[in-house]
């Protein structure tokens, strides 16, 4: 939500929330959520103009979606990679 409403002023808050989400995923083993964190990191990178990070995060999200057997979501990310 912060990314949509206050991205310019909340970058550090968003980054911290994503770090916490990643830590919880590791702690709980809920790896199915990991690609979603990468998608959000990619979106944040796009807002801050960091294209290299955006591409890296999208590639990782794509890899994880494909690995977990989520072809539709993997295809959506692949399209975003191509855009």
State the low-pLDDT regions, or none.
none
How many DSSP E strands?
0
Separation of the first and last Cα atoms: 23 Å
Give the biggest beta sheet. none
Mean pLDDT: 90
Strand content: under 5%
SS field, number of helical segments:
5
Tell me the radius of gyration: 13 Å
Helix content: over 70%
State the secondary-structure class. mainly alpha
Name the overall outline.
flat
| Topology pattern, helix = H, strand = E | HHHHH
Walk me through this protein's architecture.
With 83 residues, the chain is mainly alpha-helical. 81% of the residues lie in helices and 0% in strands. The protein is built from five helices and no strands. Helix 2 runs antiparallel to helix 3 (34-48), helix 3 (34-48) runs antiparallel to helix 4 (51-67) and helix 4 packs antiparallel against helix 5 (71-82). The model has no long low-confidence stretch (mean pLDDT 90).
